[in-house]
From TrEMBL:
Pfam families assigned to the protein according to its UniProt record, in alphabetical order: RRF
GO cellular component: cytosol
Protein's UniProt name: Ribosome-recycling factor
NCBIfam families: frr (TIGR00496)
Subcellular location, record wording: Cytoplasm
Boundaries of every Ribosome recycling factor domain copy: 24-187
Gene name in the database record: frr
Organism whose genome encodes this protein: Sandarakinorhabdus fusca
Keyword match Protein biosynthesis: yes
Amino acid sequence: MAEFEPGPWKADLDRRTTGAIEALKHDLQGLRTGRANTSLLDPVTVEVYGSAMPLAQVATVTAPEPRMLSVQVWDKSNVTPVEKAIRSAGLGLNPITDGQTLRLPIPDMTEERRKEMAKLASSYAEKAKIAARNVRRDGMEALKAAEKKGKISQDEQKKLETELQKITDKSMVDIDAAAAAKEKEILGK
């Protein structure tokens, strides 16, 4: 937040805190839960045509069964690079090649792996909380600067700081809820 402007300051803070929550939800979607989910392959990048491209730009990913992903590669020459990228992505998946289609059976997760995934979900949530706190800090600094410059009164500053804290508190609740739901899904409870 560069400088305080009475009207759009709240919209900017809402946008930034919402962005942190959306980024968390996107990160959590990529965590394996033992069920087939097409977003599991979102982080996979493939070396094709001389550059690294997201898997979604070279193939179609579907979940035809609860424990199986299917990757339909569009260009036959890209089947091997796609298979290599999936194997090296660290997801614990071993593709079975069938022409231009790769079948990815989703193995059962061990209890140890479930706990690792739950810890990872917690670390993603902590990063999102840090981002939300940074938004609050930027907002508080902008409000203090505006009060010093005489753009707002001290009373108005205190009122706006309270509003800012409410926005931050709500984002923390949303972050905790998203992380708790994912942990529950991962641990199967």
